[in-house]
Design a protein that fits this description.
Layout (H helix, E strand, L loop, with lengths): L5 E4 L5 H10 L4 E4 L3 H8 L4 E2 L3 H5 L4 E4 L4 H9 L4 H4 L5 E4 L5 H13 L4 E3 L2 E2 L1 H6 L3 E6 L2 H12 L2 E7 L3 H29 L4 H9 L6 H10 L10 H17 L5 H15 L11 H8 L8
Parallel strand pairs: 1-2, 1-4, 2-3, 4-5, 5-6, 8-9
Antiparallel strand pairs: 7-8
Helix pairs in contact: 4-6, 9-12, 9-14, 12-13
This protein binds nicotinamide-adenine-dinucleotide.
Length: 298
């Protein structure tokens, strides 16, 4: 059977490598981004450009989106030149952006009314996971639809059905609590060591070999202590996710004191103009509190 033609909307840090994997797996791809250079990169690899989300949707069997935030997803799907204005009956829709569960459910309901089944499928694993096609993919929606798109999702990582519509976004919110607190814990450990005169490289080396070891520290510890905060995952996006977490916690009357602290620290990053640095740069807030920088001499 011929492979599905896929429309991919949102070709940024994540969308570019994810769509490239689909192209390399033999899918015909129609792509769209508001930034023309991003479209040009994929076209040079063999994708076809679309003039709008609507035009992309009209030509494909499956639409995948990977845009920043809830309002962007609403625009991509619900605007006059959006996906739902162009999609044929039965076109499968997969939003892989990290957005509010409430928005994910509302957009999926609008899609269902148009006869297009929709899944929420946010990811974890960062730019590294996107490049190596090892993303953890958290899916919410109908099981039968999930099973139909598993071969496509497997090209980008490992999909897990988490529950009904919105459940993928709920699990992603859980993930973002743990990642934020992991970064904050690592930052405090490095700052205490530095303030007391221990080389941060020693702290990273020793903690990486014991119970404190984490994927976060493996990926970012060595870069933090060199002062390398090139994104990866922009802190303004993690701040967005912490706002989603607070909104979701309010909806379910769930008390999350440490996530509230993380929200305030990530808020301070935005106030300092560090929104486009990697989320590991939360250490800069902790460093300022103690007037020290946890950098290695090497
Ligand atoms: P990015 O800013 O690099 O890319 C987003 C792309 O979407 C940009 O190219 C932008 O031009 C495009 N876009 C925005 N609005 C659009 C619209 N209306 N129509 C078409 N294109 C539009 O962001 P990213 O890092 O790739 O993140 C995308 C999503 O994935 C976010 O929700 C983020 O939270 C999530 N995410 C990112 C990472 C990461 O490590 N970067 C990891 C997991 C999840």
């Amino acid at each position: 059977m011929a492979k599905e033609t896929i429309g991919f909307i949102g070709l940024g840090i994540m969308g570019t490598p994810m769509s490239t994997h689909l192209l390399n797996a033999g899918h015909n791809l129609v792509v769209y981004d508001v930034v023309p250079e991003a479209v040009g990169r994929l076209v040079s690899l063999g994708a076809k450009p679309g003039a709008s989300a609507r035009e992309v949707a009209a030509q494909v069997d499956v639409v995948i989106s990977m845009v920043p935030d809830s309002p962007d997803v609403q625009k991509v799907y619900l605007a006059d030149d959006g996906v739902l204005a162009g999609a044929r009956l039965g076109t499968l829709l997969i939003d892989m952006s990290t957005i509010s569960p409430t928005t994910a459910i509302a957009v999926a309901e609008a899609a269902k009314e148009k006869g297009c089944p929709m899944l929420d499928a946010p990811v974890s694993g960062g730019d590294v996971g996107a490049k190596s096609a090892t993303l953890s993919i958290m899916v919410g929606g109908d099981q039968q639809i999930f099973e139909r798109v598993v071969p496509i999702l497997k090209v980008m990582g490992t999909p897990v059905l988490c529950g009904k519509s919105g459940a993928g976004q709920i699990v992603k919110a859980c993930n973002q609590i743990q990642v934020a607190l992991n970064f904050i814990g690592m930052a405090e450990a490095l700052v205490l060591g530095a303030k007391a005169g221990v080389d941060p490289a020693i702290v990273v080396k020793v903690l990486s070999g014991g119970y404190a070891q984490s994927r976060v520290m493996d990926a970012r510890g060595p870069r933090i202590i060199r002062g390398d905060f090139e994104p990866g995952f922009r802190s303004r996006f993690h701040y967005k996710d912490l706002n989603i977490i607070r909104e979701t916690a309010r909806t379910y009357q769930c008390s999350l004191p440490a996530a509230a602290l993380a929200h305030e620290l990530f808020s301070a990053m935005q106030a300092n103009g560090w929104g486009d640095l990697d989320h590991s740069a939360v250490i800069k807030v902790i460093e300022e509190l103690s007037n020290v920088e946890a950098r290695t001499a090497d």
